[in-house]
Amino acid sequence: MLNIKGMKYPKISVVIPSYNQGEYIEQTLHSVIEQNYPDLELIVIDGGSTDNSIDIIKHYAEQIEYWISEPDGGQTPGLIKGFERATGEIQCWLNSDDLHTPHTLHEVAEFFLNNPNVDAVFGDALWIDENGEAIREQREIPFNRFLWMYTHNYIPGQSMFWRRNMYQLVGGLDPAFNLAMDADLWIRFSDHGEIKHARRTWSKMRFYPEQKNRAMRDASNREDLAIRARYWGTETPSFYPHKRLVAHAIRIGWKVITGCYSPGYIRFMENR
Questions:
Q1: 177 found inside a domain
Q2: Confidence band (pLDDT; 50, 70, 90) for 241?
Q3: What tens digit of pLDDT does each residue of 32-79 get?
Q4: CATH number at residue 250
Q5: Alpha-carbon distances, residue 226 vs 71, 156, 172, 179, 245 (angstroms)
Q6: Cβ contacts of residue 128 below 8 Å, gap of 6+?
Q7: What's the total number of domains in the chain?
Q8: Dist. CA 53–CA 211, nearest whole Å
Q9: Would you state the torsion angle of the CA atoms of residues 143, 144, 146, 151, taken in this order, to the nearest 10 degrees?
Q10: Number of CB atoms found within 10 A of residue 259's CB
Q11: CA distance 179 to 58
Q12: Residue 2 belongs to some domain of the structure
């Protein structure tokens, strides 16, 4: 299928890792399949669920290019397995409790067609609760390596898309990371190519107590620190606190100037 400029839409591979997410996975699958993207490769890697997940996956088997259910050692090994199967020119992953917004895949394809020199792009996100109700918007600033390195991984992972050749160039996901594998992959992307930001909401990310990164926050922070330590080198002891203060000030100012702080964000922070 061609777009309005007569260009062929690229194949997009969406890898969905899952384990016992029967409560949400059907909504996740719907959010991808119902976009009717003309060249979709949907891959589901289930870690051996014991709930109703498999029944749901089987129900959508005709729309899924490949799926498997077996113990895989966790999310990162499951994702690695999925991307080993993926053949799309454009790739992403979507957690089985999150959603892509309507038209996301078409918008992403148009972005890459119009920006042939860009290796990865991320959009904004909408945080939702366990019932799917909106909590707040996550509007972001463009990727800036200094700000990313000295604040936090502010790229919403479910709104991130990249070219397959970039994933292969950096060696893919690192199985050493169980929680911050996305941050590790993004910074390695930036070592070799360009990451852009699109002011479009491309995902709905669920925020609830059982969410893995909330339940294991300390471990996630340790992994995140290990990633940054690779690049800080000998400057960490004396210069890190000062650079962190500067980076936070720049990031907040940039977000204020560009209208990233919505009323929903302010209410969310007040009620934390």
A1: yes
A2: confident
A3: 999 999 999 999 999 999 999 999 999 999 999 999 999 998 999 999
A4: 3.90.550.10
A5: 27, 20, 18, 12, 20
A6: 99, 134, 135, 204, 205, 206, 207
A7: 1
A8: 17
A9: -40
A10: 9
A11: 28
A12: no
Alpha-carbon distances, residue 222 vs 12, 61, 213, 216, 228 (angstroms): 33, 38, 12, 10, 10
Size (the chain), residues: 272
CA–CA separation, 34 vs 30, rounded Å?
6
Specify the amino acid at residue 147: L
Domain for residue 4, yes or no?
A: no
Q: Give which of 154, 153, 149, 166 is closest to 243, Cα–Cα.
A: 149
Q: Could you tell me where the beta strands, DSSP code E, fall in 129-271?
A: 134-138, 160-163, 195-206
Q: How far apart are CA 41 and CA 59, in angstroms?
A: 17
Task: Return the residue matching tokens 């070592």.
Answer: 191
Q: If residue 226 lies in a helix (H) or strand (E), which one and from where to where?
A: helix 217-232
Domain hosting 182: range is: 12-270
1 assigned to some structural domain: no
Q: How far apart are CA 208 and CA 223, in angstroms?
A: 21
Take residue 199 and report the two structure tokens written for it.
């002011």
Please name which of 218, 185, 163, 225 lies closest in space to residue 75, comparing C-alpha atoms.
Answer: 185
DSSP state of 142: P
Sign of CA dihedral 98, 138, 267, 212: positive
Mean pLDDT along residues 113-134: 96
Measure the CA–CA gap between 71 and 85, rounded to whole angstroms. Answer: 17
Map tokens 């499951």 to a residue: 78
